[in-house]
Amino acid sequence: MSSIEIKQAIVVRTDLEMGKGKIAVQVAHASLSSSEIVKKHDSSLFKKWTLNGQAKVALKVQSLEELLEIQKDVKKKGIFCYLVQDKGLTQVEEGTTTCLGIGPALANEIDQITKELKLL
């Protein structure tokens, strides 16, 4: 394990009452898309994260407003993120914001923003 902990967080809206499979797919979208952004802009950080097991945590919020507030805080800290908006093919309307991928980034920076959130 590296001396600097790096992780990714995926924050999911529970108010949408998506099924488990739908949540899994939305989390995958968030994780992959956010990590691709980091890979493009900070390849060294991405590589360290990849070589150390790609640590990630799935967290939950109960509203769009709460999710957008977290995104605002993430951007203020300069952490890369990706907001997932669904295509509307199955359980939710097109354009529905379902989750937010954060990082990978330094774990302590993510924790400062997400420490009050509960695990999904």
Brief overview, please?
The protein has four helices and five strands; from the N terminus they run βααβαββαβ.
Task: Write a structural description.
With 120 residues, this protein is α+β, with helices and mostly antiparallel strands. It has one domain: 3-Layer(aba) Sandwich (Bit1), CATH 3.40.1490.10. It has helices spanning 20-41, 43-51, 64-76, 107-114, and strands at 6-13, 56-61, 81-85, 97-106, 118-119. The chain has a five-stranded mixed beta sheet. Helix 1 (20-41) packs across helix 2. The longest helix is centred in the first third of the chain and has 22 residues, at 20-41. It is globular. The two termini are 25 Å apart.
Order of secondary-structure elements: EHHEHEEHE
CATH superfamily: Bit1
Shape type: globular
* Cross-sheet strand order for the largest sheet: 3-4-1-2-5
Number of domains as seen in the coordinates: 1
Q: Determine the N-to-C terminus distance.
A: 25 Å
Looking at the structure, the CATH topology is Bit1
Average per-residue pLDDT, rounded, comes to 95
Tally of extended strands?
5
Assigned CATH architecture: 3-Layer(aba) Sandwich
Strand content: 25-35%
Helix content: 40-55%
Q: In CATH's first tier, which class applies? A: Alpha Beta
Largest sheet: 5 strands, mixed
Which ranges are low-confidence, i.e. pLDDT below 50, for 5 or more consecutive residues? none
Radius of gyration: 14 Å
